[in-house]
Amino acid sequence: VNAADKVTSLRAKLRGIVGDSGLIDDERAAPMLAEPRGLFHGRALAIVQPASVDEVSAVMRACWEADVPMVPQGGNTGLVGGAIASEAGNAVVISTARLNRIRALDAANDTMIAEAGCILAHLQEAASAADRLFPLSLGAEGSCQIGGNLSANAGGILTLRYGNARDLVLGLEAVLPDGRVWNGLNGLRKNNTGYDLKHLFIGAEGTLGIVTAAVLKLFPKPVATATALVGLESVESALALLGRARAASDDRLSAYELMPRRGLEFAVAHAGAVDPLPRPHGWYVLLELQTANAEFAPAPVLENLLEAALAERLVEDAAIAASEAQRAAFWRIREGLVEAQKAEGGSIKHDIAVPVSSVPAFIAEASAAVAARLPGVRPVPFGHMADGNIHFNLSQPVGMDRAAFLALWDEMNETVHAVALRHGGSISAEHGIGRLKVAGLEAMKSATELDLMRAVKRAIDPKGLMNPGKVLRA
Ligand SMILES: Cc1cc2nc3c(=O)[nH]c(=O)nc-3n(C[C@H](O)[C@H](O)[C@H](O)COP(=O)(O)OP(=O)(O)OC[C@H]3O[C@@H](n4cnc5c(N)ncnc54)[C@H](O)[C@@H]3O)c2cc1C
To answer: Average pLDDT for residues 16-38, to the nearest whole number?
Structure first.
């Protein structure tokens, strides 16, 4: 049988499994083969959308028997090329979009069982309708899928309070590369029975198998929120305020986002944001307290905290949102900042994490290091400070050629990553490794750790068919 016949026969087999409507051959295919920022464009033998776990299993068994690589895809919002097939065109893309049922919601157990293709925002809505909170929340929530979130171990705005995707899962169902289904869908909060296999699949970015469903944790639904935008002189002050805010709120702090003056100016100039404070400050923190207890009024707690901090000159100024519209206006600064960077020319991105206590030193040292390499470069370090996760983005010097600036991408990455690693940090805090950061992962792991990772990969995927070239070198 020649190679072309093998492809024809596999496609026929796949069509038999998923039906005509499950084989994507039309204009929907192109965006499924391209990374959203255009970093990677792939090709595929076929793109399939199985509609049940049995179909996922049959598709994977067929690929396994034909020795054909498989590339799982959720909402394709990941920004590291993880869900994109390679240019070789020898893989089958398996999209989970049609696996989108909520199988059960058990309010008394505070859990729901969701299939991998459920859109994150839909899960938030389902939890809310049951008077619960599903706290995973991030910019891509309108289109990313829970299977992708778990495979990338996504974090987001509320990680500080509720943890990463990994912390929100009690049980998992996954299909192995040879088509076997592992049903680990228990809703147990205590279960010490050997290796906790779900944690291998969470964060594996599709390199071990396909997650098809998960038991997710729910929480009491917040009934009150207090939000402030605080102006500070330094990142050190922001760190000191963080400790105070956690204690004062009895650890009900749900967001603590750091932004530099430059980021706020970008958001005001290009994203319709408004600066609520009368004079400029070097740094800003967007801070939010949330409670599910109607008797715990978060606004006075925030007022007392900020009054004391002002009196001690720990903070320079602060505005507390007096309405939902004002709260939205504060968030507009944080969310607009990312979009606004585009209007300032080329932008080189980093997604690092360091211990929270090292955030001030990391920002100072990384800023000095990039300025030494390129005078005039404009760092915009912002993000989830309470998780030690800073998006250390660099805007190009004013007037510099955009392409010449972007040509420095790898060099700037190396410079910034070296500072993060010196502080015991990570080169990928929440976006994962995908294809983009494979070399970076190798640089930050010991030989022993890499050996362990490769051994796990070989044990679960002995033919190396699951998402080859992602996370670990193929
Ligand atoms: C605007 C924006 C804001 C963001 N903000 C944050 C943030 O604040 N915090 C954060 O942590 N992240 C953030 N992200 C990244 C986000 O975590 C990922 O984009 C998202 O989790 C990926 O979900 P997805 O369904 O799009 O997965 P995809 O992009 O389709 O896939 C991601 C990876 O998982 C694999 N995969 C997908 N589904 C499965 C499955 N069912 N089984 C096995 N493997 C699978 C893919 O092969 C790929 O390697 C943001 C992204 C965007 C675009």
So the answer is: 93
Distance 74 CA to ligand 1 centre (A): 7
Query: Average model confidence (pLDDT) for the chain?
Result: 96
Query: What is the pLDDT at residue 3?
Result: 84
Tell me which residues have their CB closer than 6 angstroms to ligand 1.
Answer: 71-79, 82-83, 96, 116, 138-140, 144-145, 147-149, 151-152, 154-156, 205-206, 210-211, 430-431, 434, 467, 470
Per DSSP, the three-state class of 60 is helix
Q: What separation in Å is there between the alpha carbon of 33 and the centre of ligand 1?
A: 15
The answer to whether residues 299 and 228 touch, using CB atoms and an 8 Å cutoff, is: no
**Residue whose C-alpha is closest to residue 106's, from 124, 123, 130, 129:** 130
What does the block give as tokens for 360? 């001030």
CB half-sphere exposure, 447, CA atoms < 13 A:
0
Helix (H) and strand (E) counts in the chain = 16, 18
Displacement of CA 300 from its chain's centroid (Å): 33
* Cα within 13 Å of Cα(144), Cβ side: 25
Residues paired with 318 in a beta bridge? 230
DSSP per-residue letters across 228-289: EEEEES-HHHHHHHHHHHHHHTTS-EEEEEEEEHHHHHHHHHHS-----SSS--SEEEEEEE
Residue among 95, 115, 138 to mutate when testing ligand 1 (max atoms within 8 A of CB): 138
Protein residue with least CA distance to atom 46, ligand 1: 83
Query: How far is ligand 1, taken at its centre, from the CA of residue 307, in Å?
Result: 40
The yes-or-no verdict on residue 1 having pLDDT over 80 is no
Q: Which residues sit opposite 220 in a β-bridge?
A: 132
* Atom of ligand 1 minimally distant from the CA of 120: 25
Only one residue has tokens 């494979």, namely: 438
pLDDT level of residue 11 (50, 70, 90 thresholds) = very high
124 touches 141 (CB < 8 A) = yes
Confidence of residue 474 (pLDDT cuts 50, 70, 90): confident
Per-residue pLDDT tens over the stretch 208-267: 999 999 999 999 999 999 999 999 999 999 999 999 999 999 989 999 999 999 999 999
Residue of the CA atom closest to atom 8 of ligand 1: 156
